[in-house]
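Agenda item 2: guanosine-5'-monophosphate complex prediction
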Amino acid sequence: MNNDAAERRDEDCVFCKIVAGEIPSERVHEDDQVVAFKDLSPQAPVHVLVVPRQHRADVRELAHQPEQLAHVVAVAGSLAQKLADGDFRLVFNTGANAGQTVFHVHAHVLASGELAEGEL
Ligand code: 5GP
Ligand code: ZN
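Presented output:
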């Protein structure tokens, strides 16, 4: 983890702990900006979360770092290619009233080729 990521850590945040390796997760990708791992309760055959290493509450905050936001989207695309047929749904729940439960920005990547009629 670089210094910038360490500076943006929230001690009470479950995804900061996953990024730091303090809580185990099934990682499918990691680089200097993001960690991606399988969702604990998958809503599709492929359901992974792409999580910036730096703690930011939601995608509204991440939008101030457009290169990081673009990187999250690019990683989502490459994971959909690697783990499924390349097509995917990208979801950022933003705010409690929209179903956000973990307030460390994350992109849900849902894929498998069976999403056209899905409920999500
Ligand atoms: P949200 O509702 O905030 O958009 O999404 C949070 C997601 O994180 C949920 O889909 C939930 O299943 C997942 N999640 C919460 N805690 C953990 C955890 O400790 N490990 C993993 N792998 N996923 C988690
Ligand atoms: Zn965090």
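Discussion summary: Helices lie at 3-7, 14-19, 59-62, 66-83.
Owner for follow-up: CH.
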